[in-house]
Fold Cardiolipin synthase N-terminal domain-containing protein.
Amino acid sequence: MGKALLVVVAVALLIYAFFDLLATPKRDVRLLPKLAWFPVIVLAPFIGPLLWVFLGASRQRGTPPPRRPRRLGPDDDPDYLRGL
């Protein structure tokens, strides 16, 4: 039972790391080029996926969404007040 659990955990880590590698943009990959991470993940069953999760991918993906401007009432809108 214990060996089967280790195999299931190893396969789950491998699948997660592989798809995370595919989904991560090139600019968010650290330490190695994206193509070089693939053999690291596949050839080292536990160590490779863990290295990818902790060292390979930047967890601050992309840029934050832009803030929408605050809506102004007519009495606070300078363009509206100019037209009065």
